[in-house]
Design brief:
The chain is mainly α. It has 8 helices and 5 strands; from the N terminus they run E-E-E-E-H-E-H-H-H-H-H-H-H. A 3-stranded antiparallel beta sheet has the order 2-1-5, with no helix packed on it. Strands 3-4 form a two-stranded antiparallel sheet.
């Protein structure tokens, strides 16, 4: 049986079982033959104005808990969004600052170095595509070798050292001799005086003989304070 609110003409209210009736004027209940036999009968007029409404049970505590959890989840999501936005903003500012420093450092380089480094980076891309494990972190090392060997002169040729005496003078940016160039060039990059071609052969020779620029004798000498040595 459902529980209901009974409102009468006199404005009184009480809980009753919808299976019976309640008389606000007489205060008696009639449960279809199961009521109090001593109770006074409810007049037809009083019954006519009696209204029964069903009251649905609500767990107030449970509903409040659900709403609180929902608010906490919403607040947590908002905090996470703010944290993510702050982290992204910080990362963007760090990146922008790093790029600014790189631009300033690039602007301070001599024009010749900037020109040669363009060729170096192009050569690195070709080397990577052909299996050499190298990246732009080697640009500085390669530039140092070129600076010491040829000063960045693509047409440089050494006619006075031991190689020249043997009839194979060192040529180009990285000052490689013809036999070395022929052994380490890549197909399609076969002009010893062309900057990218010369760098490709020179780098491949350094990797084959020394394992990389970390063991290049000239760079090792500079780092040790004993000065650059040819390779």
């Amino acid at each position: 049986m459902a529980v209901g609110v009974v409102a009468g003409a006199g404005g009184a209210a009480a809980y009753a079982v919808t299976g019976g009736t309640f008389s606000p004027s007489a205060g008696a209940m009639n449960f279809g033959g199961f009521g109090d036999p001593d109770a006074q009968a409810v007049s037809p007029a009083a019954q006519a104005i009696t209204e029964v409404r069903t009251v649905h049970s609500v767990d107030v505590g449970g509903e409040a808990s659900r709403l609180l959890q929902q608010e906490q989840m919403t607040a947590a999501m908002a905090v996470n969004q703010i944290s993510d936005a702050a982290a992204n903003d910080y990362a963007a500012r760090v990146k922008a600052e790093q790029e600014r420093k790189e631009r300033e450092a690039e602007a301070r380089k001599p024009a010749k170095q900037r020109e040669v480094e363009v060729w170096i980076k192009e050569a690195i891309k070709v080397l990577q595509a052909n299996g050499t494990s190298i990246d732009n972190s080697s640009v500085g090392a390669i530039w140092t070798v070129i600076q010491k060997e040829s000063g960045g002169n693509v047409n440089a040729i050494n006619n006075w050292d031991s190689n020249a005496v043997r009839g194979t003078p060192s040529k180009g940016l990285m000052q490689v001799i013809d036999p070395t160039f022929q052994a380490y060039k890549l197909a399609g990059y076969d002009d010893i005086y062309r900057p990218v071609d010369n760098i490709i052969a020179g780098v491949r020779y350094v990797y084959a003989r020394y394992g990389g620029f970390h063991n290049h004798p000239g760079l090792v000498g500079i780092n040790a304070g004993t000065g650059y040595q040819g390779y």
